[in-house]
Amino acid sequence: MPSLTAGLDPLAPVFGLAGLLWGVAADRIAARWPAHEDGAVRNVDWRTPIVAVFAMAALAAVPTRFGDPGERLLFATFFAACVLLMATDLDQRLMPDIVTLPLIVLGVVALASGGDSLVSRSPAWLAVLGAIAVPGLLFVASLPFGEGAFGLGDVKFLVSTGLLAGLVRIVLAVFAGAMLSGVIVFALLIARRVTLHSYIPFGPFLIAGAVWAALLPAAS
Questions:
Q1: What does the angle CA 70 – CA 85 – CA 156 come to, to the nearest 5 degrees?
Q2: How far apart are CA 17 and CA 15, in angstroms?
Q3: How far is 120 from 220, CA to CA, in rounded Å?
Q4: Could you tell me the pTM of the whole model?
Q5: Which of 49, 93, 101, 209 could, after both became Cys, cross-link 176 (CB 3.0–4.6 A)?
Q6: What angle (nearest 5°) sits at the alpha carbon of residue 178, between those of residues 175 and 179?
Q7: How many angstroms separate the CA atoms of 85 and 95, rounded?
Q8: Domain locations in the chain as residue ranges
Q9: Cβ–Cβ under 8 Å, residues 128 and 111
Q10: pLDDT tens figures, 66-78
Q11: What's the pLDDT tens digit per position in 210-219?
Q12: Distant-in-sequence, close-in-space partners of 152: CB < 8 Å, separation ≥ 6
């Protein structure tokens, strides 16, 4: 199985272009679906290039990281769903069940057929532990901060991440998401684009962390 440092796979540009197109499409989907309460449709704005570039980078990395065709299909599907979830969370602060729940099913099927050795070479029971314990603990820890501090959409997404990537990598995904959110929020505060009272969804940072953790080279 090739690592990220093994060189660019010839299919990477193809996957990257497909990712770029899907990123733009996902942004336009999120602008319309789920339907806004006022019926408005958001125009192209700062969210569009963020989602598009993320999608391009994530999908381009798939053939370089995963050599097996089945694994490429699995993680291309997972990453494509991540792109749509990022788009909807940035637009509406929402991770729809119609996307997160099938990802859990995908994780269960992948775990039953191949274990979480797909990315981490660790026992399957550790993936189940990570899928239950990590989002559960985060949700309980968020309760004192009020409703919406850590949403059920985030919980469901992390369940699928744990099943697909294993215990160690779901912890890394959460850590990376937290670090990324801290840097971005700090930069926005310095630039006076947000205040300490502004609501910033954590989902996009979790998604970026999950994709990064899944793409880490497998332990030898």
A1: 80
A2: 6
A3: 9
A4: 0.92
A5: 209
A6: 85
A7: 6
A8: 12-215
A9: yes
A10: 988 988 999 999 9
A11: 999 999 987 6
A12: 139
